């Protein structure tokens, strides 16, 4: 099972799982030697982030029932991904060795910062973890649970391999799994596996999209007259992959709504499982324009550390790229968290703002955020340094994050802490929270607690979320679901988009007691009139929206 502590520990890691694997890279020399791929490490360091996908469809089985859709589904998904700029590696009706070799071939091409999509369609089973079944897998009635697991490809291995290559150095690569599996799979011996949808992945920083919820059937056809070439899930997915500008989170929400509607109309039940823990938005088919890759952006100065009213009024750059914790942002905008910032959409607006107002340091900083959101870290860091020299505490914090995450520079915890402290000295709440996170990672929980408190007092919604997590987990502070819900509500009131996203897509990360306590608080606020049952369905979600960004 995924624990809240596991998830929160890696809040800054951007990994997405939807059952697709996409990443593409120019690696220079890559040599295959037996089971190993050898590459020039310098090529990996210097290459720009790429987008690649591994797409596998298993429909013909030696000992299991054949499936009509997987090979067609995989072809169609692969074609769409290729059409929107992914380099696609394909596999069809593979045995165990073929699946392992194809995964190794794919991961050998990945490098830190890449976007990787893994798509699998075929039989799958919960065997003490999610497993994708190769064409030569034994029939479950003739195998033990362990035997069948040994014959299959584990989801844990897929995630671990892709995470290690795309985000293993702390860079903001993305791993996206899209899984169309578990079609009425039979029980495994006396210790049965799942007869329906797979479990959410036991990994941190994941966005996962599964064709069906745990224990449900993922249907190939709605009824005997259904002539669609694709499974119910994939037919809903394909047009969303093509759509320009949609984030992975939006794709997950829309495909879930569409599949549930199709199934319900046919008298069936299939609700895709969506699990989102990415910090920054991931757009598979970008629609925004961007700056030329080698363009260097230069800005001007600003002395004030307060929300400016001088020089320039609210602009599109402010609306798209202002940092919620930046004291230099205009007061009329709430700001956009890194989790929601669309770098590509913000680039043009912020470049225009810098050109029109070269003396506004906030635009210089916000253009840096747009570049960072587009994974152009080398340009972003240059801008952050310029903004920091002119008094931007938010830029100091971002330089610290660059050292913390290894964005275009070597990871360096000491340097990260030094820059965070410089920003905190200037009153930046995000930096105070980041200091707390570093101290917590060093097991200095009491000192971390004091920094969380400072950040929360400054209005940091991330620190409020951290307090909620501490009271939920009961390791540093005594477990208290009531106080956990109090801090969750405060984070929501401050407009923390991470908190809102988690309570929308993965409320089960929080205990039933905490969920009930939050529902009671929503009742007391007069925005919720349903049962206090811990079920975060439509009425609770509407109430959460009502308090979001209230203060």
Question: Would you write up a description of this structure?
Answer:
It is built from 21 helices and 11 strands. It has 551 residues and is α/β, with parallel strands linked by helices. Among the domains are: 237 residues, Rossmann fold, CATH 3.40.50.1460; 101 residues, no CATH class. Helix 10 runs antiparallel to helix 11. The longest helix is centred in the middle third of the chain and has 18 residues.
Strand content: 5-15%
Any idea of the CATH topology of the domain at 14-23 and 50-276? Rossmann fold
Supply Rg: 24 Å
Overall 3D form: globular
CATH architecture annotation of the domain at 14-23 and 50-276: 3-Layer(aba) Sandwich
Look at the helices and sheets and give the structural class: alpha/beta
Low-pLDDT stretches = 1-47, 183-200, 287-311
The CATH class of the domain at 14-23 and 50-276 is identified as: Alpha Beta
Distance N to C terminus = 35 Å
Blueprint of the fold:
Elements (H helix, E strand, L loop, with lengths): L3 H6 L20 E4 L2 E4 L1 H6 L4 E7 L12 H14 L3 E6 L3 H12 L7 E8 L1 E3 L3 E3 L12 H7 L1 E2 H12 L7 E8 L25 E4 L21 H11 L5 H18 L7 E4 L39 H6 L21 H14 L4 H13 L3 H13 L3 H13 L7 H13 L3 H13 L3 H13 L3 H13 L7 H13 L3 H9 L6 H13 L13 H10 L4
Parallel strand pairs: 3-4, 5-9, 9-10
Antiparallel strand pairs: 1-2, 6-7, 7-8, 10-11
Helix pairs in contact: 3-7, 7-8, 10-11, 11-12, 12-13, 13-14, 14-15, 15-16, 16-17, 17-18, 18-20
């Amino acid at each position: 099972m995924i624990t809240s502590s596991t998830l929160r520990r890696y809040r800054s890691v951007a990994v997405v799982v939807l059952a697709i694997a996409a990443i593409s890279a120019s690696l220079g020399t890559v040599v295959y030697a037996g089971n190993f791929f050898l590459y020039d490490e310098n090529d990996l360091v210097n290459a720009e982030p790429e987008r690649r996908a591994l797409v596998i469809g298993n429909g013909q089985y030696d000992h299991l029932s054949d499936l009509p859709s997987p090979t067609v589904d995989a072809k169609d998904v692969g074609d769409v991904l290729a059409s929107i700029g992914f380099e696609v590696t394909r596999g069809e009706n593979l045995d165990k060795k073929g699946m392992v070799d194809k995964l190794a071939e794919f991961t050998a091409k990945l490098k830190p910062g890449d976007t990787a999509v893994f798509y699998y369609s075929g039989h799958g089973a919960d065997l003490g973890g999610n497993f994708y079944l190769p064409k030569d897998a034994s029939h479950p009635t003739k195998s033990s649970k362990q035997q069948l697991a040994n014959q299959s490809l584990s989801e844990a291995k897929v995630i671990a391999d892709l995470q290690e290559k795309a985000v293993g150095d702390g860079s903001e690569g993305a791993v996206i799994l899209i899984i169309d599996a578990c079609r009425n799979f039979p029980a495994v011996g006396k210790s049965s596996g799942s007869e329906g949808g797979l479990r959410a992945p036991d990994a941190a920083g994941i966005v996962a999209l599964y064709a069906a919820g745990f224990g449900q059937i993922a249907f190939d056809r709605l009824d005997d007259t259904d002539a669609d070439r694709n499974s119910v899930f994939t037919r809903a997915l394909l047009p969303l992959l093509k759509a320009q500008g949609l984030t992975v989170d939006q794709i997950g929400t829309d495909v879930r709504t569409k599949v549930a509607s199709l199934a319900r109309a046919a008298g069936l039940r299939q609700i895709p499982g969506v699990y989102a823990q990415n910090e920054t938005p991931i757009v598979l088919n970008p629609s925004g324009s961007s700056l030329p890759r080698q363009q260097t952006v230069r800005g001007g100065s600003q002395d004030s550390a307060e929300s400016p009213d001088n020089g320039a009024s609210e602009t599109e750059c402010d609306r798209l790229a202002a940092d919620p914790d930046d004291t230099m942002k205009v007061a009329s905008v709430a700001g956009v968290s890194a989790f929601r910032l669309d770098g590509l959409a913000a680039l043009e607006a912020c470049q225009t703002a810098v050109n029109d107002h070269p003396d506004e340091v906030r635009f210089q900083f916000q253009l840096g955020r747009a570049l960072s959101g587009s994974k152009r870290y080398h340009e972003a860091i240059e801008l952050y340094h310029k903004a920091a020299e002119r008094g931007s505490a938010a830029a100091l914090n971002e330089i610290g994050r660059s050292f913390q995450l290894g964005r275009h520079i070597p990871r360096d915890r000491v340097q990260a802490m030094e820059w965070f402290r410089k920003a905190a000295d200037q009153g930046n709440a995000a930096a105070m929270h980041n200091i707390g996170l570093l101290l917590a990672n060093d097991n200095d929980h009491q000192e971390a607690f004091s920094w969380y408190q400072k950040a929360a007092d400054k209005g940091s919604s991330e620190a409020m979320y951290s307090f909620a997590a501490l009271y939920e987990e009961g390791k540093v502070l005594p477990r208290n679901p009531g106080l956990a819900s109090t801090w969750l509500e405060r984070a929501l009131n401050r407009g923390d988009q991470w908190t809102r996203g988690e309570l929308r897509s993965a409320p089960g990360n929080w205990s039933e007691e905490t969920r009930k306590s939050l529902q009671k608080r929503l009742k007391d606020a007069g925005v919720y009139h349903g049962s206090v049952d811990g079920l975060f369905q439509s009425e609770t979600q509407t109430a959460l929206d009502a308090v979001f960004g209230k203060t």
